[in-house]
Amino acid sequence: MPQNKRILFPPVRLHTALKAQALCHPARLEIIELLRHYDFLLCSEIVDYLPLQQSTISYHLSVLLQAEIIIRDEMAGAVGYRINLQGWRTTKEYLQQFFTEVG
Q1: Phi, psi for residue 78 in degrees, rounded to 5
Q2: Segment 93-102, tens digit of pLDDT
C-alpha cells in the first residue's frame, strides 16, 4: 500500500504549502480582492465580476475555503463569502515566516 508522503514533512510546511497553493491562481487573487472591497458576496455576484463560469468560481471558492482564507457566511438569509480575518492573518504569518527563513 502506498505511503502518504505528506507525513514526511513538518506540519508548518504543509500549512504553508496549502496557503501558497490557494494563492497561486489569479482568479483566487481576484476573488480575495473582490471580497476585500465588498466584504460579503454571493457566488452569483462573484460570477458577475469575473469572466469565468459559475462552476469554476465555485471550485476556486472551495480551494480558498479549504485554506481557511475565506469563510462561508449567512447574511439576511443569503449564503455568501467573506474574508476570514484570522485565516488571512495566519496565511500572512506562514508566508512571512517562510520568506524570512529562506532570505
Answers
A1: -105, 140
A2: 999 999 999 9
Residue 83 near residue 41 (C-beta atoms within 8 A): no
Instruction: Give just the sign of the alpha carbon dihedral 38, 42, 44, 46.
Output: positive
List the grid coordinates of 12.
508548518
Distance CA 42, CA 46 (A): 6
Which single residue is written with the C-alpha cell 447574511? 75
Alpha helices in 1-103, H assignment, sequence order = 11-23, 26-38, 43-49, 54-66, 85-102
Q: How confident is the model at residue 2 (pLDDT cuts 50, 70, 90)?
A: low
CA distance 1 to 11: 23
Tell me the C-alpha distance between 1 and 100, whole Å: 38
**Residue 40 and residue 75 in contact, taking contact as beta carbons nearer than 8 Å:** yes
pTM: 0.90
AA letter at 94: Y
